[in-house]
Amino acid sequence: MVFFSTNDTFTAKAQNILEATWREFPSLAKNQIALTWIVYDEPVIVNTGGALSSQEFWQYPLQGFSYRGEEKIYPASVVKLFYLVAIYEWLEGGMISESPELNRAIRDMIVDSSNDATSYIVDMLSGTTSGVELSIEPFETWKYQRNIVNRYYQSLGWKELATINVNQKTWCDGAYGRERMFLGETYDNRNMLTTNAVARLLHSIIGGVAVSSTASQKMMDLLKRDVTCKTLEKGEEENQINGFLGESLPNNSSLWSKAGWTSTVRHDCAYIEMLDRNPYLLIVFTEGKENSQNRDIIPFISAQFAQI
After folding, report:
1. Is the pLDDT of residue 227 over 80?
2. Mean pLDDT taken over the chain
3. Which of 52, 177, 230, 284 sits CB 3.0–4.6 Å from 56 for a disulfide?
4. What is the pLDDT of residue 113?
């Protein structure tokens, strides 16, 4: 049972969009996409600056839809959203201390999607560092420490988080030494998320109840995107708008998002506000080498939902 319910109207609209997507992009197999969509009816309970207590917030019913929303998929940089919430939990709990360098890394991890900054954040969260291979006993201790973020999310008791794995750094060229050992011979210990898990975490952030209302607002500030950046600047490979959900939104829209991409996946998760529309949350994961290089699939899907 997920944290939202669905109905025939939502299901029909979303299924029509999926069918249109498969017609437009025949290379996208039905098992190469996962999607979660939540619409906020009046009274809108998100982006209120934390006006509701956590207990009140979670009592409000939600309407939504998911397709393969419980399928575990490699999340690429979308996992940084989970490290973002965790680092603010650690800060507010006094487990680590704020510093200019930590704030710089938090900002660069989300705003620029820096893998180097993420490595620093994961080290801060877990008290571990990358490096050469370790012998058995030190490695067992190292692995236990690295899994602290997983233990934090399991402690929340959310069913959507039951199968996720968030214990790996993100890389440009790949893992070496103890990091490669930790991934497993066949990469069985890779980060894994579902679109429903991402939806619930993002819902808590925009609702102002992730860690605290103050922390949630700081996270919202970092996730805010400029939807007018629809083309890439010279020398720019990605900007988290072009080729993602924000590309097809009107320029007067408001967008909070975190994208992720590699040579085999292209994902985005977003909270969207538009004029004369109910605000909504949309998470889209796509897999496959050909699909990951296709910058039109996710904007196409976003355009369909923006018209509902």
Report:
1. yes
2. 97
3. 52
4. 97
What local confidence, expressed as pLDDT, does residue 235 receive? 86
Is residue 297 domain-shared with residue 242, that is, in the same domain?
yes
Residue 138 DSSP symbol = H
Domain tally, the chain: 2
Q: Is 31 exposed, middle or buried (0-12, 13-18, 19+ CB in 10 A)?
A: exposed
Token output for 273: 């506000």
207 and 216 Cβ atoms separated by less than 8 Å: yes
The 224-225 sheet, strands edge to edge:
63-67, 33-39, 280-287, 265-273, 254-261, 224-225
Q: How many CB atoms lie within 10 A of CB 69?
A: 22
Would strands 280-287 and 33-39 be described as parallel, antiparallel, or unpaired?
antiparallel
The C-alpha atoms of residue 102 and residue 229 are separated, in whole angstroms, by: 27
Mean pLDDT over 259-264 rounds to: 97
Q: Give percent above pLDDT 90 in the chain.
A: 97
Mean pLDDT of 4-9: 96
Q: Do residues 198 and 59 both lie within one domain? A: yes
